[in-house]
Amino acid sequence: MKQYLLIFVCLFIGIGIAKSQENIKQNVSIMFYNVENLFDTKDDPHTNDNDFLPSSKRHWTNDKLEKKLKNIGKVIYSTGIEPPMIIGIAEIENEKVINQLITQTGLMKFHYKIIHKDSPDPRGIDVIMIYRSDLCSLIKYNYINVSNIGNNDLRTRDILYSIIKTNNNDTLHIFFNHWPSRIGGIKSEQKRIYVAKILRTKIDSVIHKNIRAKIIIMGDFNDEPDNISIIKYLNTIDDYKKLQWNQLINLSYEWLKDVSWKGTYKYKGKWSIFDQIIVSKAFFDDSNKKTKIKSAKIHFPSFILIKDTRNTGYAPFKTYNGINYLGGYSDHIPILLLLELN
Which of 278, 292, 318, 329 is an S-S bond match for 340, by CB 3.0 to 4.6 Å? Predict the structure, then answer.
């Protein structure tokens, strides 16, 4: 009798442990960071990287490169107890420098894997992704070419599209972007609209296959949440209660309320929200709560800011101000999407 009682107790305890493990929630994050001109010190004859060589006016050396890598690693580490599950990074010259980032800083113990492809950008700067293989797995990826072959003015960064399987067996469709700059005024806006149309076409194809696809779009759009490229051509809104299945919600729209004193990029004393987080309706679908959005925020550790001596308040602590070396982090502030995996 005692033997049967012991077996029963063990089974009861085992079931309790199993149920408690089922209820464990895991918090993870996805980060995007435009790191401002992360170049190596070697001349690439196929790109215009002449501003970032030891012989250039900026005197870009291995010591400065190593300091910048440590700075970027410090920012990534400051996001939480553990660094993000996935990080999209813009303005990377090549895979070599990103490999240095994940093997020669404190990030090395997290065994990040790299997704990279050279883009058509004239300066050779790319959009890359690193991901932690202990927290997720890569199903597939491809780079979406958005350069207009018939328009020599539009040689820009590809959009990185990846499909990720998380540890809770959920699937995420992630798009990392770095859209054309604002140089050129109205003409440059047409370039961003062109890219937005291509991205929207790809999003529509994902939704057509699975209307409940969990889509995450992050990046430096060089436009703000209320600009036409984002609202009209990506079909975004700011209220999830009104969200239709073919629409996207821009979680960054809320940040506009604070733009008087902060944003993700500052130019001539004015903050802008160029770096944004946009998601699909599936995250707000009550039938699938495996992955929940906890928050979307601009990540502002104090050490990446510096007193804005020309204007008011603070500005991003940049690596360079023109050709003057400052030794800072980036001219952009990173953004962070916090998820709960059930």
Answer: 292
Total domain count, the chain: 1
In a domain, 5, yes or no: no
How far is the C-alpha of 191 from the C-alpha of 229, rounded, in Å?
10
pTM of the model: 0.91
- Domain of 31 in residue numbering reads as 24-341
Kindly state whether residue 13 falls inside one of the protein's structural domains: no
300-331: per-residue pLDDT in tens? Answer: 999 999 999 999 999 999 999 999 999 999 99
- Report the CATH number at residue 274: 3.60.10.10
283-299 confidence digits (pLDDT tens): 998 777 889 999 999 99
